[in-house]
Amino acid sequence: MISKEILKKIRRIQITTSRKVSNVFAGQYQSVFKGQGMEFHEVREYLPGDEIRSIDWNVTARMNQPYVKKFIEERELTVMFLLDASKSCHFGSSKQLKSELSAEVCSVLAFSAIRNNDKVGLVIFTDRIEKFIPPGKGVRHILRIIREMLYFKPKGRGTNISGALEYLNRIMRRKTISFIVSDFLDKGFEKLLSLSNKRHDLIAVTVTDPREIDLVNVGIVKVEDSESGKVSFIDTSNEKVRKNYNRDALKRIQKRKKLFRSINIDSIDINTDSEYEKELVKFFRNREKRLR
Asked: How far apart are CA 46 and CA 143, in angstroms?
């Protein structure tokens, strides 16, 4: 039984994200995500200017006058969300946890997809595959996906991006639009990321909290690695410690961006202390410009 509080939160996200889809992203989704090719639609009488190669000779022979085949873009797509539910994503020092922000961004993209009659599916992963919802259509299906993104209780603590990509490639035989939503605090996934991007249209959505980049001067603090459980103490009053922390974080971000560029993966960077709409609009505009 779903509690009233959970239903209220899901309803709030539905209203918020649906409004943003209508007001901000109307038309942009369809312009940057194309169908997989052309499919036969109908035959009609030949008109001056039609290409000779489009003539359907069998129908022409039966009707004793020329007819042509008409094709339309195969519009229906399959959109998959690979959602990182590791312990490091259940962290936030600002308005939202990284996991809550991830769910809201996925909701915007999911509602954009169903407005275009596309199928939407979900893979929740940690250091294992936690949950798979096969692609489907309709508002009720999207609401189920939102509920799982917000309230699913994973068993794993760590992150295995390679495992999630291997699973995607195994279960989805045809090309998909796949958003992998993670803080990317993992190693050794570069090869699978490149291979998966050749098979699917892969978009990396990175989720970051400001405290993962900058330390605040609050003296000596006890910190615990959310995935390994390792405990340590950091003297945040030490300027050198803060500078080294910031330097290492920026290096990690630059390395990740360089990786995405090297294998031609589009990326969206969102932060728990800023509005994500600007980053989504930027992504759509850049992609649309490149496809012209």
From this structure: 47
In a shared domain, residues 44 and 105: no
Structure tokens at 10: 């899901």
Give Rg (Cα) of the chain.
23
Q: Give residue 188's identity as a one-letter amino acid code.
A: G
Residue 12: both structure tokens together: 């709030």
Hey, CA dihedral for 174, 106, 154, 213, is it positive or negative? positive
190, part of any domain: yes
One domain, residues 283 and 250: yes
- CA-to-CA separations, 138 to 33, 37, 154, 227, in angstroms, rounded: 19, 23, 26, 35
Identify the CA nearest to 239 among candidates 247, 250, 227, 229: 247
Backbone angles phi, psi at 84, to 5 degrees: -75, 115
The single-letter code of the amino acid at 248 is D
Residues 158/174, Cβ–Cβ less than 8 Å: no
Are 59 and 33 spatial neighbours (Cβ–Cβ below 8 Å)?
Answer: no
- Displacement of CA 252 from its chain's centroid (Å): 21
- 133 within 8 A of 148, measured Cβ to Cβ: yes
For 134-159, write each residue's pLDDT tens digit. Answer: 999 998 999 999 999 988 999 999 99
Dig out the tokens for 136 from the structure.
Answer: 């489907």
Range of the domain at 48: 38-73
CATH number at residue 151: 3.40.50.410
pLDDT of 105-132, one tens digit each?
999 899 888 888 899 999 999 999 999 9
Residue 65 lies in a domain: yes
What average pLDDT does the chain have? 87
> What is the predicted pLDDT for the residue at 37?
52
* pTM recorded for the entire structure: 0.81
Residue 188 burial (10 A CB sphere; 0-12, 13-18, 19+): exposed
